[in-house]
Amino acid sequence: MSVLPQTSESVALRFPTGFVWGAATASFQIEGSTTVDGRAESIWDVFCRRPGAVFNGDTGDPAADHYRRYVEDVELMSSLGLGAYRFSIAWPRLSDLGFYDRLVDELLDKGIAPWATLYHWDLPQSLEDKGGWTNRDTAYRFAEYAATAVGRLGDRVSGWLTLNEPWCAAFLGYGNGVHAPGVQDSRAAVAAAHHLNLAHGLAMSEIRAHAPDAPAGITLNLFPVHPATASEADADAARRVDGLQNRIFLDPVLRGEYPADLLADLAPFGLPELIEDGDLEVINAPIDLLGINYYRAYLVSAGDPVDGPTEWPGSSDVRFLQSGHPKTEMDWEVQPDGLTELLVSLTREYPGVPLYVTENGAAYPDTFTEDGEIRDTDRIAFLDGHLRASHTAIEQGADLRGYFCWTLLDNLEWAEGYAKRFGLVHVDFESQKRTLKESARWYSNVITHNGLPTTEG
Ligand code: IFM
Questions:
Q1: Quick one: which of 432, 433, 413, 431 has its CA closest to 422?
Q2: How far apart are CA 100 and CA 119, in angstroms?
Q3: Residue 321 in contact with residue 301, Cβ under 8 Å?
């Protein structure tokens, strides 16, 4: 059976009317042009120059050259029928936001709703020189930046997200050092996490001031966490990982408190002392939507603590196990059921917040056929499975309002460089030629029909 729904009659799983269909990107991963129009240096520019930090010594140039080719790229989005486009604003471009002005106008011109993320990891290096996210002051500088960016674009942006995946910024950036700025210090990672939470809350108030009618929230990378066995030790490992990955952001943002067990786990790393009077009220500012980036679930067991840098402060004893599912090129297991579980449990545990999948997608070793096509049936199966899982979640009561595929264009996959391709659209980084993968056409059909075919193709 064809993977493409040919007629509306063949569409079995229809999504709710008004469901938002989009694709997501991030500034540093696609823009290139890192030294033009007054752009300042970011922590990722510096990190990319560190020998061995990024695969192949790749850097933010040329990326997908989107800064110069955005008109062509918006045309591509339009040809796919995207209803929304989630991009991020580069804080280092604060002195000249003209590019985003033009991008937003171009999107609106083509009938595509612009969704903007204020922070997708490109912190100005000048702030890192003062301690970066370990310095509480960075949260206040972020609020100033938010005021300027939202003041400039707030009349036209459809949805705002303060932060993308603060877990990565804190625990990969300052914990195991795999991401910029490459610090390896558990106390620093915990401080970064709290200051990112504070930055989110402060920025929410700037969004309200400058774009009072626009829905706004935060995007978190969330994982269902399961213990490998029924043992107390494994259950405790799962509890700790769930705290460090999920509840450390969900609970202060949506409940106005850090969970008691997490506060105790992170006491040796200074979390209680970081929290000043009034912080939790700021962080608990009402949000209109929660963005969820979902890639996989975790299966964990307890083991012996491991020495050395870790992204799991106080939990270096936890082992992450395979559960036997097929894997993507990132070596991540394909677990669509985890998305259903996550969405349903979020609606149950944190009721009242509309949910959007703001990222979901997969890297595969795309190859061209002789006729110049990329038949990425593995990516289509991945997306199909996760959309079915999203639909099941809606049927089970999850308040899911939209889905943004990660990602529009092949790009710089952070420390993995250009080697890992997540795009719906193939990019030849030398010629900058764009080629639609079969998944792009498949996704376009899903959007057109607001639904999926009866059986997986
Ligand atoms: O490429 C990243 C993106 O920047 C953040 N979420 C996960 C993606 C895939 O690793």
A1: 413
A2: 14
A3: yes
Torsion sign (Cα): 414, 220, 16, 452: positive
Nearest-angstrom CA–CA distance, 451 and 390: 11
**How big is the chain by its Cα radius of gyration, in Å?**
21
Give the mutation target among 44, 119, 165, 178 for probing the ligand 1 site: most ligand atoms within 8 A of CB.
165
Domains of the chain, first to last:
11-453 (3.20.20.80)
In this structure, how many other beta carbons lie within 10 angstroms of the beta carbon of residue 37? 12
Q: Whose CA is nearest to atom 9 of ligand 1?
A: 413
Active site residues: 165, 359
- pTM of the complete model beyond 0.90: yes
Q: State how far the Cα of 220 lies from the Cα of 165, in Å rounded to an integer.
A: 5
What are the tens digits of pLDDT across the range 300-331? 999 999 999 999 999 999 999 999 999 999 99
Q: How confident is the model at residue 4 (pLDDT cuts 50, 70, 90)?
A: very low
Ligand 1 centroid to Cα of residue 302, in Å, is 27
Element spanning 227, H or E: strand 225-227
Q: Which atom of ligand 1 is nearest to the CA of 295?
A: 7
Instruction: Quote the pLDDT of residue 8.
Output: 47
Residue 392 has which token pair?
Answer: 């099941």
Residue 144's alpha-carbon distances to 120, 244, 334, 348, 352, in angstroms, are: 16, 28, 40, 35, 29
26 lines ligand 1 (CB under 6 A): yes
Token pair of 385 as six digits: 């499975």
Tokens of 317: 């004893």
Distance CA 397, CA 69 (A): 41
What is the position in ligand 1's atom list of the atom closest to the CA of 361?
Answer: 9
Q: How many CA atoms lie within 13 A of 418 on its CB side?
A: 20
Phi and psi of 166, rounded to 5°? -60, -25
